[in-house]
Amino acid sequence: MKIQVFGTGCSKCAMAFERVRSCVEGLVASGELPPGVEVEKVEDVMAMIRLGIMSTPAVVIDGRVVATGRIPDADEIRAWVSGGTDSETANAAPSCGCGGCGCGR
Length: 105
Known about the structure:
This is Thioredoxin-like fold domain-containing protein. Residues 1-81 form the Thioredoxin-like fold domain. The chain has three helices and four strands. By secondary structure, it is an alpha+beta fold. The chain has one domain (2-91): Glutaredoxin (3-Layer(aba) Sandwich). The chain has a four-stranded mixed beta sheet, with helices on both faces.
């Protein structure tokens, strides 16, 4: 499993990365996740554009965007990595891609 936390280097993005990293480390230590889960910080704007990420921080698991525009909590992270929830695009921060923010585009 590869988890990427996309951000521009701001404090909110750094907090999101640390939360994901520490949560995954705890789940691996407790045996809830197998060793070898990769958590990566990505600041490449072109990679964000390719994935359609319009607001940061954003969390991507195995190439699938699961959250944008906010810092996820530990329960969400646990659900995502255990396969217990779908992509969270409906709850993502409003942005215009337009993936349903209501702008009318």
